[in-house]
Amino acid sequence: MAADDARERSLANLSPQNSLTHGARRWLSRSLAPPCDRCIGRDRCEDFEAGSTCKIAEAYRDSIVAEINALPHIQPTDAPLVAEYAQLATCLRIIDAYLGLAGPFLPGVESGYAEMQPVFTKNRLAVSNSLTRLASELGLSPMSRARIGKDPERGPASAIAAAIRAIANEKPGDRETPMDAEFTATDEEVVGNGA
User: Fold this and answer.
1) Residue 28 in this model has a pLDDT that exceeds 60
2) Is 43 buried (19+), middle (13-18) or exposed (0-12) by CB count in 10 A?
3) What is the largest CA-CA distance in the chain?
4) Which of 21, 76, 152, 179 is spaced 20 to 30 A from 30 at the CA atom?
5) Domain residue ranges in the chain
6) When comparing pLDDT for 162 and 30, which is higher?
7) Band of the pLDDT at 79, cuts 50, 70, 90?
8) Are 31 and 48 in contact (CB under 8 A)?
9) What is the tens place of the pLDDT at every residue in 42-64?
10) Which of 91, 86, 58 is nearest to 70 (CA)?
11) In whole angstroms, how far apart are CA 124 and each of 27, 76, 88, 116, 191?
12) Residue 64 in contact with residue 135, Cβ under 8 Å?
């Protein structure tokens, strides 16, 4: 009889209703969005679809990739870093959504036993640190944007540096001679200080 009870409890723990999770480890290890069926916020989610994965996480990742790729200093060779940054930023959002619904502490706080959620202590801080380092590498932080602005090979200064190099490499006679033009003045009203 006790074996049957233990088996029933084990099977009940495998039920999606009893194993709600954040899905952050799945997202980081296999790049798979969290399953809707096991999401802690599925009762409140407008995009919930039984048997599906989190469309919100996938759309968020795709929007981050598009926004970063649109930046003028991002090159096609930066694609792996951009993808990793988007993956980590989405993971951070998944963890924060989970902690917002489940709370930062494991169940048992009411009885005086307070322990932080493992996803907070093990995952969130590490993901946040990695995200900060990648933001610096991609020129997304204030300090890195300032550094890129001063770098003549990347950022806004690169166009000015290219124009200066082009002018320096010109030989006399490379430019077209200015055209002489004739014009006639017409009687127009003088505006300003034209006495």
Assistant:
1) yes
2) exposed
3) 111
4) 76
5) 17-105+116-166
6) 162
7) very high
8) no
9) 788 888 888 778 888 889 989 99
10) 86
11) 13, 29, 10, 12, 65
12) no
